[in-house]
Amino acid sequence: MAALLVTLAGAALALAFPEPSLNPAAWVAIAPLLVCARRRRTAVGFGYGMLLGLGFFGVLIVWISLVGWLAWVFLMVLQALYLGAFGACWALVSRLGSVAARVVFGAACWVALEYLRSRFPAEGFSWGQLSQGQHNLGWILRLAPITGGWGISFLVMAVNALVAEAWLEWRAGERSKAAVAVGTAALLLVSPWLLPRSAARGPEIKVAVVQGNVSQGPPTDIVARQLGILRRHERGTESLSEQSPDLVVWPESSVELDLPGNPAPLERLQASAMGASAHVIAGVNDDVSEGLYRVMALHVDPRGEVAGSYQKRHRVPFGEYIPGRRFLEWIPILDQVPKDALPGESPGVFELPSGEVAVVISFEGDFGSSVREPIDAGGRLLIVATNTSTWGRSWASAQHLAFSQVRAAENGVWVVHGALSGVSAFVAPDGAVVASTPLWKAATLLRNVRFSTSETLYTSAGDFVAWISVLIAVAGVVVGKRTRSAP
């Protein structure tokens, strides 16, 4: 019965994330694991953590099955292993006698493992970070400029730990202690309201996003498909000419530089910039050789000149490259990734007359460290160019946008989230989505936004909360291991 409860609690945790974004579910959904694994053997804690992870990731990333159920099972199990490790850690730190110690060490263990799974294996996977599940709660996002998303995860985990304490005290007949635990959890949840709301007060710029869309279903003619995408972005940009945007954003994969035709795709991109008398930042793919290519963003100025380029640094493992390809070529599903993307080396920052723009491409926007670097390098407005068309009408597009909300709040900047097939959006510096497009519809968005004038603490200091959590977690596990478990 306990195993089923923990598994269902994991599935309930996924409901805090887009969609349906029942954000408060994250405040209580981990508590059953904490109750069941408390002061148990580490193997038991690991097992309960695995069950929570399988329920959680099984629901959260079920859209991975669109490229194969085997891929879904592999990624679900891999990520669940981290929650299994958390369960084992919790079994140890829950032996500590102080409620405050259990709450702090437990929350630190969760954040430490969130951080580690965003780094390993390969280039990491950040999906399912608790901050992503709080994307619509503006008052909680006020923590992000100070602590990054890690502080939000710490807060949510601490609330779960207090809920678990309250339940155990209530069952033991200690009603006053249970009330104190619930009251403390409530105070933690409302405390970010005391922090200021982020806003950008720099120069204003009129930005347009062109969502050209793409035909649904497997392509029968890849060249015709890509030429169609290019044409739709050209037409969308032409429709903006009377509105005089300063900057036009084309999403990831909107231009394939090696397509046949006269004029060539790059010349057509340059012509669009000249026709609109605007700067254009476009997501492009460029073949390097038979087995290698580059995922890039190009900045074309109103004169049609290429003013800058950025090459994606944080690639999607098993999506844009195969780690250890020569050892894995026998796996049939990997035929879907015939080429490897080459990683770039430097953060993407483009200079416009009114300010500097930071650029990341798709998967990079899911990692706070990948985003803060170009902003720390001078960017005061963030472009996230993405292509989530592979995932159809699933939750993936909305989940990806939720990360842009967290990134906006962390760095105190406007985010222009441009997606090939949707959802495209403008996100304010406090994390609020102020305009968005539907999925699978050609559309344009136009809005005046402002450059930020300063850096947040998180932008300048980085993932210090995650590193402190790692140190606290290690200390907690060591102390817990030396503490005799209560019967």
Descriptors:
2 domains; 16 helices; 487 residues; 7-stranded mixed beta sheet
Unreliable spans are none
- The whole-angstrom Rg is 23 Å
User: Biggest β-sheet, characterized?
Assistant: 7 strands, mixed
* Annotated CATH architecture of the largest domain: 4-Layer Sandwich
User: CATH H-level name of the largest domain... which superfamily?
Assistant: Carbon-nitrogen hydrolase
Broad shape: globular
Number of E-type strands: 13
Looking at CATH, which topology of the largest domain would you report? Answer: Nitrilase/N-carbamoyl-D-aminoacid amidohydrolase
Helix content: 40-55%
Number of helices: 16
Care to give the gist of this entry?
This protein has 16 helices and 13 strands. It is an alpha/beta fold and 487 residues long. Strand 1 (204-211), helix 10 (222-238) and strand 2 (247-256) form a beta-alpha-beta unit.
Can you walk me through this structure?
The chain is α/β, with parallel strands linked by helices and 487 residues long. The chain folds into two domains: 2-197 and 463-482, no CATH class; 204-455, Nitrilase/N-carbamoyl-D-aminoacid amidohydrolase, CATH 3.60.110. It contains 16 helices and 13 strands. Strands 1, 2, 3, 4, 5, 6 and 13 form a seven-stranded mixed beta sheet that branches. A six-stranded mixed beta sheet has the order 7-8-9-10-11-12, covered by helices on one side. Helix 4 runs antiparallel to helix 5 (99-117) and helix 5 (99-117) packs across helix 8 (149-171). The longest helix has 25 residues, at 69-93. The radius of gyration is 23 Å and the shape is globular. The two termini are 21 Å apart. The mean pLDDT is 95.
